[in-house]
Design a protein that fits this description.
This protein is mainly alpha-helical and 167 residues long. The protein is built from six helices and no strands.
């Protein structure tokens, strides 16, 4: 059994829930889409300018943080992987662009971001290729793992697509 980080259990309820739901965004209609949209903003502001190696380290740390917070939020909300927890989408969305350092200078940057967003939503909603099985894990790991896997699949697709179609 995979143990979830326990450090967030010492945080106040309000802090845990607000982080996991990204404030009130988790209450909006289609919360996963809103979390993914904010993940694009997160990528553009904090990740796009990093080298691929630095981005991997940063996003691994962000994923670990999300596992701890999402797992604790599940307990506080007394629900298993509720829709209002969107920190997982927020953190996983930038993973879609791993391997594409420097793409922020491409003339079709907006289209690349849009393609990554749409592909991520597709894989996050349908959960093909065994991604759905990752949700069976307990706590925050189960909440975040399927989104990270979807992000990694999209990253492969995006790297192939950008290389072959946009040169």
């Amino acid at each position: 059994m995979i143990k979830n980080p326990r450090w967030a259990r010492f945080w106040p309820d309000r802090a845990v829930v607000n982080l996991a739901t990204i404030g009130s965004l988790g209450q909006f209609k289609a919360p996963g889409t809103w979390g993914s949209a904010m993940g694009i903003v997160f990528y553009v502001v904090f990740v796009a300018h990093l080298s691929d190696f630095a981005a991997v380290l940063f996003l691994a740390a962000a994923s670990y943080f999300a596992i701890g917070v999402c797992g604790e939020a599940e307990k506080r909300l007394k629900k298993v992987d509720p829709g209002e927890i969107i920190l997982d989408e927020f953190v996983a969305m930038p993973i879609c662009f791993l391997g594409l350092s420097g793409v922020n200078y491409h003339p079709h940057y907006f289209l690349i971001l849009l393609a990554g967003f749409l592909l991520f939503r597709f894989f996050d909603i349908l959960k093909p290729l065994g991604i759905k099985k990752l949700q069976r894990y307990h706590g925050g790991f189960g909440v975040v793992a399927d989104d990270v896997a979807a992000g990694l699949v999209v990253a492969v697709i995006m790297n192939v697509g950008v290389h072959f179609w946009l040169g």
